[in-house]
Model the fold of this input.
Amino acid sequence: MQVNELKLKHFRNYDQETFIFDPHINILIGNNAQGKTNVLEAIYLLSTTRSFRTHKIKELIQFESEFGFVEGQVESNKHDYDMRVVVSKQGKKAFINRKDIARTSDYIGYLNAILFVPEDLSLVKGSPSARRQLLDQEISKISPIYMYNITKYHKLLKERNAFLKMLKEQHKEGDLYLDVLSEQLAELSADLIKRRMDFVALLNEMSGTMYDYLSADEKLTVSYHTSYKEISKEAILAKYHKTYKRDIIYMSTVDGLHKDDLKFQLNNNDASLYASQGQQRSIVLAIKTALLEIVKKEIGEYPILLLDDVLSELDDQRKMKMMNLIDHKVQTFITTTSIEGMQHASIAKAKKIKISHGNKEDI
Ligand SMILES: Nc1ncnc2c1ncn2[C@@H]1O[C@H](COP(=O)(O)OP(=O)(O)OP(=O)(O)O)[C@@H](O)[C@H]1O
Done:
């Protein structure tokens, strides 16, 4: 997959700009606060209809403007597409070949992107919610059904929690409607957890190989942790039934896949407790490069890669190895304040675009 052309209109600090990209490496160079990450954010928006920096989509519209849009000419193995996401005060609208696509799950997949930002470097020791988010986002890219079901799960969970609160206020210990909601959640949970487990098995295999290449010292293992001993609708529902009273007291669904976690181990030691900064970086790098391979395996072609200011966070050896892994395979967008010290041959051949004050200049 690749983005050949990107148009920005009233997007962040861009009034109007058109970028023509190289199929391999594109480097956006500029001082701080010039608009480099804004370009990555625009590509990510085109890919997912979301920003990786804010949930408030209206922040993407240029100050003083009523609307903004991002439009990309995208080339894949199958077809070429014109993709567009328009953001206005009313919300956002996504289009493929000028056709309005109402459901996000129908839009995702035309342009797959793997994003790597400095915050990802805290994935190993950070909050479980970031690891769950990674799982949900990445599985959604290769499975529209997963995306549809996880959205439905969270809606039902919210409804169940609100209902638990009402039961507590009414001093009730159960209700037929609680049974219905629990049954629906149990059915979805069994399906979603199985899909997560399958994905993690693949991630474990691929990231193990990548880690071995990036840092041959230890063995990386990635595993999925859930509170359920048996993954079936019946077993999950039975657990819900057993914990009705507790959930009503807490006014919250205490157990569930919304509490599950992804664990990393190096030579059987819990990486969240023992991994050094360098080891954590290698793990995240192994995960991100493994994700590229998983998308290739599942979809049949590589996604694009967005590297926001992360190369400067990696040492020379890891940087070189990372570039070796993506060279001539993956269209990559790199933001940086300077290319000094970037030694790989692909950097010399890369398309370099200077960004200043929301304007670009090919150099
Ligand atoms: N909605 C908006 N309208 C106009 N300008 C905006 C808007 N949102 C952000 N900006 C401007 O965009 C600039 C930041 O751009 P960006 O985050 O892409 O910086 P950057 O070049 O990646 O910098 P750094 O190297 O510091 O990460 C700031 O000057 C900010 O004021």
